[in-house]
Amino acid sequence: MAAKRLKSYPLDQCALYKVGSKKRLAKILDVDLPKLVRLSADQGNFQVFEIPEEVCEFTGAKKKARWVQNPVPDLKAILKRIAGLLSRVQVPDYCHGAMKGRSYRSNAAVHVEEESAATFDLKDFFPSTTSAQVFAFFRHTLQCAPDVAGLLTDLCTYGKILPTGAPSSPILAYWANRKLFDVLEGRGRDLSLKLSVYVDDVTFSGDAIPRSLPEQVDGIVSKHGQKLSAHKTRIFGPGKPKHITGVVVAGGRLGVPHARFRKARAIRAALAAAKDDEQRELLASKLCGLLGEAAFLDPRYRRWAEDSARQLAAIKAARLSAKRAVK
Q1: pLDDT at 185 over 80
Q2: In a 3-state reduction of DSSP, which class is residue 92?
Q3: How many C-beta atoms surround the C-beta of residue 291 within 10 A?
Q4: Hey, how many other C-beta atoms are within 10 angstroms of the C-beta on 313?
Q5: pTM above the 0.85 mark?
Q6: Is residue 200's pLDDT more than 70?
Q7: DSSP 239
Q8: Spatial CA neighbour of 185 closest among 266, 104, 269, 91
Q9: How far is residue 20's CA from residue 74's CA, in Å, rounded to a whole number?
Q10: CB 181 within 8 A of CB 99
């Protein structure tokens, strides 16, 4: 059930390992050095905005308002390059976020055979990861020259924290907090529990979850400069479906949360009732994306996903034909 693992390499084989000069860094990132330095400044290179609270029209579920620091296109391309180089570096088995060949699905699959599970959420994970931690990764773990580590840190951070909209932030959040996750893994071994980490989601599983585990995890997380979202901590006992990174683990298999199934049915009903062609295409696209994700988790959704894709293609073709007829 695990995702296919793509080729990875040791840390010392990464192109960013032991980079000794800014000129060499610019060559690796395929950017002129003056441009690289200019893009390393916060001012003007990030769009900062708030996404207001959202309420799903189909489920009523709420997403709280959140601030986003989105890099400008030229900087985003560089950060994608950095993320791509780091995403193939070998990491412990427990790490599933921002890695080639791993996903939220492989993260949940780790726990499919276990009786009990506990899930934890790191609160404000990116904003709580500092530029000092990022610099320490580039300087001491990747062993870059100090000025190179400083330039990389300036490129990858905004206001001395990891920006929420940068493609490099998920993988850097892992490396900057590696000591925290290694300590959690060690505690899991002591308690005969499996650990998996998907960005800011931490999951333990085993025959039984000790009563003291939430307190132990909170203590370890706090010691390493992070915090838990206490209201998101969940304990799943034997025989109960386990909700892990948006996946239901039950009966020895991975499944789709019922809420997602209800949402798909609601969108399908709205699509059947829609009269406006543009609205039909928008709804069909939402349904297609939702069912494609469901089929990724559970093959039983594959036929519905394929039917949805064909419906979307037919709606798009009809709209295009209508536009041509008008011309």
Answers
A1: yes
A2: coil
A3: 25
A4: 12
A5: yes
A6: yes
A7: T
A8: 91
A9: 24
A10: no
